[in-house]
Task: structure prediction
Amino acid sequence: MFFKTIDFSKYSSIKVGQPTEVLMIEKADKIPTDRYLIGGANNLLVSPNPPPLMMLSKDFAYIEQKETILVIGAAMPTGRIVSYAKKHDISGFEFCSKLPGTLGGMLAMNAGVKEYEIFNILHSIEIDGEWILKKNIEHGYRFAKLSGIATAAKFKVLEGFSQNLLDTLINLRSNQPHSPSAGSAFKNPKGNHAGRLIEEVGLKGVKKGSMQWSNVHANFLVNLGGGTFEEAKFLIDLAKEKVLAKFGITLQEEVKIL
Ligand SMILES: Cc1cc2nc3c(=O)[nH]c(=O)nc-3n(C[C@H](O)[C@H](O)[C@H](O)COP(=O)(O)OP(=O)(O)OC[C@H]3O[C@@H](n4cnc5c(N)ncnc54)[C@H](O)[C@@H]3O)c2cc1C
Result:
């Protein structure tokens, strides 16, 4: 293992944070239990005082096909997984296109788009050197209860990459803001849309400093340039407060605040 300085104002998708020492884990290392693991930082909001951090090194960025099983390392970026699936005519990973992150982040978040979620196509996850079957992992909408750090996952190979599905899913993203964000700030409450609730309490387009509830999609907290953690946290707390007061609904963050 070795330390690397990562500047979260550049590395994180929301471009908030500061240079921070991150412990890089290599294949032969025993994974520490006293550090928070980050993936591609596409779902993170890093405070000025984050917990000690670690990250899987490129040793964990691989794809191996063993007959009808695909073994993918947890540090593998989603874009490269989609390219592999396309090249080898494999179905199931189309939804990972434009869903920025690593496989590990997808597993921990049960990331997905519409009815497509990573757990739908998952076979098992490697944690602490043991393969755990999907049926033994509690999971649901944007959550999975992993018993440790995922180092790899297995998927059954199904034939037939669908360019059509990929194009349809990419089209769905046309209403997403282009400014830096961490994706959806809140999970959708059952039977409702966080974006609609934020809009109905009058926060769509509202700014604090350089952070803003996007006027393109209200559940996206966007950074207009140089936004800070404090500004982001202010808007998150404000939305929770207003939605609770008006609708009696407690919004739950999807973005992980460190
Ligand atoms: C523009 C944009 C659009 C997005 N659209 C979507 C969308 O449509 N659907 C969706 O679901 N998400 C979406 N997201 C959020 C993000 O893409 C996903 O949550 C993604 O899975 C995050 O992966 P990551 O590697 O960046 O994880 P990080 O943000 O680094 O971490 C997220 C969580 O995963 C955990 N984690 C990471 N790796 C591991 C591992 N190996 N083992 C255990 N835990 C791990 C971290 O501890 C953390 O709790 C979007 C984000 C952006 C910026």
Observations:
- Residues 229-247 form the longest helix (19 residues).
